[in-house]
Amino acid sequence: MRFNQEYWFQELNLKLQKLNNNIHLSTYLISIGPLKIQVIFPKDSSFNKAINSFHTIQKLEQYIPNLHTIYCLDENFVDNLPPINITNNDIGLNNFKARLSTQSKIINYDESRNIYKIINTHDKKYLLLCKDFDAIASWEIYSPLKEFIHFIAIESNCWLCHAGSLCKNNKAIILFGSGGNGKSTTTMTGLSRGLQTVGDDYVLVENLNDKFYAHAIYKTVKTYPSKLFKLHNNFAAFERHIIEKTGKYVYICDEHKGSSFFTNSAEIIMNIGLRLKKAVSASETTPLDFNARYLSLSSIEQIPFWINKSSRFSEKMFESIPSHFLDFNEGKSSLNDNISYILQRIS
């Protein structure tokens, strides 16, 4: 029998509702700027590491109706869900349609790790289903659930962007560029010079009456061991992990351990595109060598769904905020020049 997607999503909603106050599940509220997202997952599971990566969380005593809710379940809960009798071809077709359209019901399957990511923006229900939470890659543990946040953000006139950030006095500069172009290194160097951040890898951007604000999603910062900058002394107090695939260090910047590196929100005053190049002085910055497509490219590559909406948001952001390139060279002088440029603009 052919898989009936509409019927299956109806069944899924009914099954998930029965789990809302299950005594074996924990419920947390994640706050990201204007977004309020409920996350439900098994108590005492390794998913606690992921939930601890969020910047602003609150443990709830009971389920709150009508919020966007992400259920994160392992094989112990498979019997509580309708069977997913869908072929890989149908999943591929479903995903293809969701790339350019605003299809509200999406089934995404990572066959190599046996992980389902199921989206239902219409009913505000989302499901991460895996055999074991240890199957989730380490880089996703420290920036978890970003695909789900992407859809919820776009529904709320926001955008999850792949970017770093530096902030001062409630003003933010957002650092764009694909992986390896210096976002985290520039962010970490700025922190060592007294600046703050709303994220070194992912940032939620909100359009509020054509003013743009950056909000912290996670409280993690990631960096390669480097001689280019000296870590602030406070980093010694933070929990540190290593991302196996990349070798990057991840620091969990808990406020109760003395972290003042993160701020909740800040108004965006500039976009900066970072380009890894041979040493070029920051004074040679070009007024606008890049465009809205560059601004959104790595974000779309990371989460290639609802691409048109992501592109329109980045175009509006590009039109509304001054934007510049900075060439990033792995030498200290180029990094120092770039930080000086940022400090001049944000002070």
Would you give an account of this structure?
The chain is α+β, with helices and mostly antiparallel strands. It folds into 2 domains: 5-155, no CATH class; 158-346, Rossmann fold (3-Layer(aba) Sandwich), CATH 3.40.50.300. 27% of the residues lie in helices and 30% in strands. It has 9 helices and 16 strands. The strands form 3 sheets. It has a 7-stranded mixed sheet with strand order 3-1-2-4-7-6-5, sandwiched between helices. The chain has a 5-stranded mixed barrel with strand order 8-9-15-11-10, surrounded by 5 helices. Strand 8 (158-168) and strand 9 (171-176) form a beta hairpin. Helix 7 (292-302) packs antiparallel against helix 8 (307-320). The longest helix has 15 residues, at 332-346. The chain is globular.
Could you give a short description of this structure?
With 347 residues, the chain is an alpha+beta fold.
Number of strands: 16
Radius of gyration: 20 Å
Low-confidence segments, ≥5 residues, pLDDT <50? 279-288
How widely separated are the two ends? 64 Å
Number of domains: 2
Look at the structure and name the CATH superfamily of the largest domain: P-loop containing nucleotide triphosphate hydrolases
**CATH architectural type of the largest domain:** 3-Layer(aba) Sandwich
